[in-house]
Amino acid sequence: MNKVILMGRLTRDPEVRYSQGESSLAIARFTLAVDRRFKRDGEATADFISCVAFGRQAEFVERYLHQGTKIVAEGRIQTGSYTNKDGQKVYTTEVVVESTEFAESKNSASADGGYTQSRPEPVSAVGDGFMNIPDGVEDEGLPFN
Fold it and tell me: What does pTM read for this prediction?
């Protein structure tokens, strides 16, 4: 199975191109900075993962993602190779992104991500999505004992 899930921030705005032909296809390339769990010598380290998205996913990337945006990307690893202009063989590894999700809202993002910090909205007691359980209901009548 070839499946990758990454969470990180875009290091710069995505580079988007369109293929030529009758039905042009969007191709978006971007790099994610993914923090490592463990620190080296007390300093945080990150891996910089090359990513590519095609079609509708690339159009989403072009429209909504920019430098500093924190996302969760899901896809697969793809390897390849080519010969550069000096005649040397170059090996590539990138993640072909099949889906993306925002990993934080604009309001909760840090200043490093280019967003402004704001205080969360207070939760009201009425209409908060939870059902009030009337007094006198026994615990054994609830579905999660």
Answer: 0.69
Whose tokens are 């009337």? That residue is 134
Find the range with the poorest average confidence among 71-75, 105-109, 123-127: 123-127
Helix boundaries (H) for 40-143: 55-64
**Cα dist. 60→48, 70, 111 in Å?**
21, 14, 23
The boundaries of the domain holding residue 25 are 4-141
Q: What is the Cα–Cα distance from 65 to 17, expressed in whole angstroms?
A: 15
Integer angstrom CA distances of residue 129 from 55, 108, 124, 126:
37, 22, 10, 8
CATH of the domain at 128: 2.40.50.140
Phi, psi (degrees; rounded to nearest 5) at 17: -130, 160
